[in-house]
What does this fold into?
Amino acid sequence: MSEPEPLIVARDLGRTFPMGEEDLRVLRGVSFRIDRGEYVAILGPSGSGKSTLMYLIGCLDTPTEGTLELAGTDVATLTDAELAALRNEVIGFVFQAFNLLPRTTALENVALPLRYAGVSPRERRKRAKEALERVGLGARLDHPPERMSGGERQRVAIARAIVTRPSLLLCDEPTGNLDQRAGREITALFERLNAEDGVTVVLVTHDPLIARRARRNLRVVDGEILYDGPPLDGLPTPAVVEPSASVPPAA
Amino acid sequence: MLEYIRSALSALLANKVRAALTMLGVVIGVLAVTLLVGVGDGARLYIEHTLEGIGANLLFVTPGRRETRGSMAGPRGGNVTRPMTMEDVRALERQGTLIREVTGATQGGGTIKYKDRRRDTLVFGVGAAFPDLRNMHVGVGSFVRQEDVDARRRVAVLGRTVVRELFGDENPLGKSIRIGEARYRVSGIMEEKGASLGMDLDDMVFIPVTSALDLFGTDALGSIMTAAKNKDDVPAAMAEVDDILARRRHGEREVTVQSQDDLLATFGQLTNAMTWMLLAIASISLVVGGIGIMNIMLVSVRERTREIGVRRALGATRSDILWQFLVESMALSVLGGLIGLALGMAIAFAVRHAAPDVPLAVSPWIAMVALSSAVVVGVISGVVPARRAAKLDPVEALRYE
Ligand SMILES: Nc1ncnc2c1ncn2[C@@H]1O[C@H](COP(=O)(O)OP(=O)(O)O)[C@@H](O)[C@H]1O
Ligand SMILES: [Mg+2]
It folds into this structure.
């Protein structure tokens, strides 16, 4: 394998929300590096700042402290339009709540990012179709998301996230609204995208089984990264980890 | 742009009832604008039509001095007003150089009787020049002739409505009718003329002006009509008429000479009131419609906060979002405008069929005016919601429940 190429480099990232008298420090001193082709699971109790971190990495939010480099560029130097282009081309988002646009077909949902990329309608249709075939929904092109199961909806959302062929997939609790079976299928899909297409996957999950299948885990507790390393076996499920229970970094 | 329009339309389709209610204000506004422009246009067409109908270069002389234009200061000639008589008509005929034919005219109500049928109608005493001057022509038989006027003959020319009412299918030519107590012989029937501004031009009877003066028991003419020989000479001809009549009054200017322009200007004021009213309705409804659209768009922005966040996450720039909502507001407004325009045209056509004399026209530029006002309303009322949508913080939008 060639030299690992850094995709995300976070240095001392912090995010503070002004809240009346006292500021709310949701993230502090977060530093890590994720290389191209990695598959990383982020764990941590509810309210620990995982989503906030995902929004920062996804350039939807800006850090109040520290720097973030994406594909070698300090995102603080980018304009609003450049950030939009970055989200469009480099990043694909998958949300817990699917966030598909209602009253439109699966195909239209998937084609939407291509519209913002300025792709012609014809080409859009073709590529959206390919993306839906990639997630196993080639036969459901014109279905409205309202008439699909949760697993199918999330697959439409994944097709939408990969349609611009991004190098990074950011998935915030993508299986949180799915039953176990559908959750497994979605996870398998991420693994395939990572293995076959070389897409870097960063996913937030509460599911220890999913986390264990990732090659690397980041554990966020109370706005700080308390563990960064390979999955640890025999650990209690992350949801019941006490914020104080710090996990020693792996050797 | 097409993209924005397409998605705007599907967004509106998704909430048809609300979209329809929102559009109502603009519908009414544009409807009013359509009718407004229609009335204005109709009045203009009507004036043009009347210009032709009235006979070219008509001059209209009435007794008494009135200021018809703002250019002349103060009333002149005092209160003493000598009537205009047939002598004045003859003086104009003899001395006028810039005018062609002249006719005295007087009119009054009269009861026309034939056998046991009767009809109250307008009796119009005129001279032989009348048809030419006013562009109202006889259809069958002959009009009042000069010798009829000179000999004070009792001949009558009937309008079509009078013929229908009194004679039915019978041929009136040569028949004897009574006007008041006097017997008249029917010498002609006018061409069908139709109605003009609520007045049935076929519901009248023409008799020699001299006979009419006898009938009404007076020497005083109601008016004198003549026409300038050339269009360019109208002002000079008016002065000439004024001078000739003043000479017969020891220099006192006691008559008013009006050109057809003056007459039509007076008529134009009539449509003004209606125009202003419609303008008021139009602007109020457009403003109300605009506020309605703005409110609905604000609600829509709030409801679709999450969608906005998702779009931003997928690569939409702020200006993409701005345009999305601006175009949606414009689509709403323009759709309402189109409906208002269609309704307005339908009403205009219906009115034209039901009441042809109401001045209401439909021309292509109405569509332009109506639709551009709709676009303007759409843009203005869309700016605030669209900017609000564009300014939304993407993360807050995504976290919005
Ligand atoms: N805009 C905001 N203003 C104030 N507090 C916020 C804001 N966004 C998130 N938070 C707070 O930050 C903390 C972390 O939230 P989040 O990143 O969503 O956690 P997680 O995804 O790990 O459950 C929570 O306590 C949340 O209330
Ligand atoms: Mg979260």
The longest strand of chain B covers residues 99-114.
